[in-house]
């Protein structure tokens, strides 16, 4: 037998996540709703917008009219719940690429999203006043930016908070570790929002980490962590609200592990039937994050099936309009290649532009 | 005018800009209390306080990545990476994130970020500290690259770098840090990017260099003059942007060109200089364009480095080859 016992031992059993609303939309014993009915209705609508956008995008992609994109379906509460705890006027989100409802809440217009999915460079431009960093394709690369952003706001005496979204897979990247470490040291007002959706393309959680709880990693960086039911809008909102309050008060970062499930493919180029057990998928369908809040509101007489059907139609029309805008956007021009490489084009690049355009006309 | 070495001139620029613009902050390993391992930032944390000059954890990727976030928040960060060889730990943040953010966001998220790093050999560092990897960053469009060869340029180019709305990689010659001294004006001045400097006028052969190799070319030119050979020496100052017109004019003047660099030969910035000369002024050439550089071998331990880095003697031999061609 070992002579010495390490002082720090891993958990052997996963910690129970924070839950407020059960799968049938009922408040768990002793819990009070963390948000007003009006906010819950707004949340249902915003989550439905995200889902509707992806459904429409998926059919366009299958018609060959759209590039590859990463659908959010199944993770609507996991993305919106934390974002609702932010103030879009003073706080910031550094997204990965699967956070549509959160970005809609921050004010990113449908048109931008449609343009981006159509492969148009202008779609990556974030409109003035929208506190969202550009979509991030390199996994975890946005986390250092979120840390610098939050830290910089604090240095300037502003009370803004930044929130980095990333997944279980991205949390294996070095950028995650370096970022958490620096944020801890600087007590930066940052929320690390780790969405464990079960899969990094086809790689399951068990291959991503040996830990039972991603949230436990926070201890190694000297700040607190929350494990939350990632399909429970109320729990996510409540936990994040507390984390944001701590950050604003100068108490530093929080790691939030949102346990959710990616109901669709990683991207439209992926085939999850090759690796996702259909029985597991069925179990998660019963935990649908949108229906849960709809049921909660329905029990209070604030939502019904007719409203669901009507709002679905409204969303479809909005998405249709956004894509129409995208399809009618002026065709791209060769000059655009040379725009925004630098603030002012260099003489060296001017020479290349002249040559490139001459060879292509 | 005061005499300064490179370290003093760079520190002078940092202090001047931090006084002028309160958005400027410094971050990096050991840059605070210690003043940096080469003392470039010596006294700045004491002068400006701990909210302007930050010691960070030992983590190159997040030093660069958080600098971008600081810029997004409205500050003007100047990050120090202790040695250029260590930037590979931050390569993604520099090349894909910082260099590209203006382009990919169509200007909504530019990066006014300066990254300083010393590089180059000849000072007996441990392994991986001396590598001249400047050309690797040239393949990341969107970031400018300045490589001063003397204290006057170091101050003027650094002031330009920090004020430039685009990200700048500012590479400081390890061997020149204390060895190269010169007159540096006290006040504010900037040196524009993309304008090379004629170091010495000549008529027989053009020597092309940047950073510490400029000094080698100057010494070679003196020796050549003793033999009656007149060398035209130019200092590129920045390799992004490259002063194509200035380069072409300098080569056309003599019809012969030798590029001197500390980086290994293949796919180096010297290769790009030669390709440019070949495309732009082939018919003015009297001889093949030559390069003096280390071979395509790793930078060795310091017991071997004297056999590796370019020397004045090598330049003289290659110039003779060029003249006899």
Notes on the protein architecture:
- Chain A is of the alpha/beta class.
- Chain A contains 13 helices and seven strands.
- Chain A has a five-stranded parallel beta sheet, with helices on both faces. In chain A, strands 4-5 form a two-stranded antiparallel ribbon.
- In chain A, a hairpin with a 2-residue loop joins strand 4 and strand 5.
- The mean pLDDT of chain A is 96.
- With 325 residues, chain B is an alpha/beta fold.
- Chain B folds into two domains: 181 residues, Rossmann fold, CATH 3.40.50; 128 residues, Rossmann fold (3-Layer(aba) Sandwich), CATH 3.40.50.920.
- Chain B is built from eleven helices and 14 strands.
- In chain B, the strands form three sheets. A seven-stranded mixed beta sheet of chain B has the order 3-2-4-5-7-6-12, sandwiched between helices.
- Chain B is globular.
- Classes of the chains: A alpha/beta (361), B alpha/beta (325).
- Chains A and B meet through helix 5, helix 6 and helix 13 of A and helix 3, helix 4 and helix 5 of B.
What characteristics describe this protein?
heterodimer, A: 361 residues, alpha/beta, Rossmann fold, 2 domains, five-stranded parallel beta sheet, two-stranded antiparallel ribbon, B: 325 residues, seven-stranded mixed beta sheet, five-stranded mixed beta sheet, 11 helices, 35% helix, globular
